[in-house]
Amino acid sequence: MAVSVYQYSRFGLGVDFSTSNQAAFLIAHGHLDPYVTTHRYPYLDDHFGLLLYPMAAFYLVYPHGILLLWFQDLASVAAELVTLLWVTEIVARRSSPDDSSLAGPAIVVGAVVLLIADPWFYTSILFDFHLNAFAALFLVLAARDAWNGRLGRASAFSVALLLTGDTGGLYLAGLGFSMAVGATGKRKFGAAALVVGAVWVVVVHVIAVNQSHVLVASYTYLVTGSPLVPGTITLFSVSKALIEHPHRWLQMLWGRKRIIYEILVPSGVVGIFSPWAFGTDFAVFFLQATAYSLTFLVDGFNVFPGLALVLACSVMALCEAAFSPRRWMRRAGCVVGLGLVVQSLVFAAVKIPEQFDYFLRISSPQAAALDRGLALTPGDAEVIASWGVMGRFSGRQWDYPLYSGVEADPVRARNVVFVLTDAGLENDSPRAVAAIGAFVRDKLNAKVLVDSAGVTVLEWHAPAGTTQVPIPNPTGAVP
User: Fold this and answer.
1) pTM value?
2) Cα dihedral 42/216/143/43 (nearest 10)
């Protein structure tokens, strides 16, 4: 939460945070079907994340976007704590009451190390805001209760999992498949979870056309043979292509074998072969790894739910070896477990500093300039901002990302404030930012509010009847 406060103060929040923050702001102000201008479609078209609605109620008490980051922090840590509780239960069930060996405590300590040293955990909480953290929490809660035979509670957490959107349905279907094929006495519950999760994904796909199209398009190459060749991409066509053209996704997986292994390091790796993980392996790791865009695999939040569950499955596998009556099995388990912990620590020592450097890149002078710009921006103004720093400016009705690939942005208010910088993530080049700034200042005659540390904030009073503002391309020419 302290890191989130620092990140929030440095304006290191982009489009994904803006989408949820703007929606929460509008919901708190009575817009129950909020239209998010960051993507230019209704919020519910963005994964159908119903869980944001109860969180938005807190904006009535404390109307600041930091709330979303804090909720995400709490959910992420809670998912780790539940995973750890499940690990202790697995160890306790497998060991005998008179067992005096250190195997059980060593496995629990090893799990703690893997949880704390997980670089993708830090990536997921630093990368704006997503409901996947809550999906991870509800997925592990549902899996743990199902494993303990508490199917009523598992059902309740499964329903909560669906509230996180289409990905929640996908995770539930994966868990259901694992239980249906590998959980004795729980196969009916698993089959029901598989059906409910799959139906939820299809329903959301039908309702949320915009976001579904973007995600499914990442698998165009499976259908057409090349991401550059257009084709009719649907859930059905992609599913069919997975079966008819296995060489295409096998080549993709082979080409990414190193990064896939790096993703799995915090899970303990061996748990991916557990029957309890089969469905999650597919719903989380396989689908992210076979998407054409590598972003889905390395963004942290998309793989975090799978890492938490597979870690518990890795503990199941290690317990089989650690408490085996065969000495060679116990020794092998000790070697593997120690190797996994050492590997995790080495990987974390390299990767975690990279994540903090990458996401917390905005300097103190740049943050101060952005803070002055935010203070000078009227609450009813439309904001058109560089999309790497637009998050703090998104608590309003009209908030558009600014980048040179868009030919024009709509004008919805008389006061339009432009926030320009190349300081944050996913921004245009300095040349493109300079071209846009020169156009707004010189051609639109906008007033300069802030111009320091590479940050320019300008206020433009749009003439009556203006419906859009052109955006220059990187050469400075106006389309």
Assistant:
1) 0.93
2) -10
Distance of alpha carbon 464 from alpha carbon 178, whole angstroms: 60
β pairing state of 399-402 and 408-410: unpaired
Measured between alpha carbons, how far is 114 from 265 in angstroms, rounded to an integer? Answer: 8
Looking at this protein, which amino acid is placed at residue 110?
Answer: G
Contact (Cβ atoms closer than 8 angstroms) between residue 137 and residue 83? no
Could you read off the pLDDT of 124-148 as tens digits, one per residue? 999 999 999 999 999 999 999 999 9
Domain boundaries, the chain: 2-64+362-470, 67-359
**Is the pLDDT higher at 407 or at 108?**
108
Separation between Cα atoms, residue 284 and residue 456, nearest integer Å: 41
Q: Which pair of structure tokens corresponds to residue 466?
A: 């203006």
Ordered alpha helix ranges (H), 360-411 = 364-375
Coil/strand/helix, residue 409 = strand
DSSP states along 129-154: --THHHHHHHHHHHHHHHHTT-HHHH
Residue 404 pLDDT greater than 80, yes or no:
no
Question: Rounded to an integer, what distance in angstroms lies between the CA atom of residue 426 and that of residue 419?
Answer: 15
Query: Residue 436 contacts by C-beta under 8 Å, 6 or more apart in sequence?
Result: 402, 404, 418, 420, 428, 471, 472
What is the spatial distance between Cα 157 and Cα 172, in angstroms, rounded to a whole number? 10
Instruction: Report which residue type is found at 102.
Output: L
The pLDDT mean for the chain works out to 91
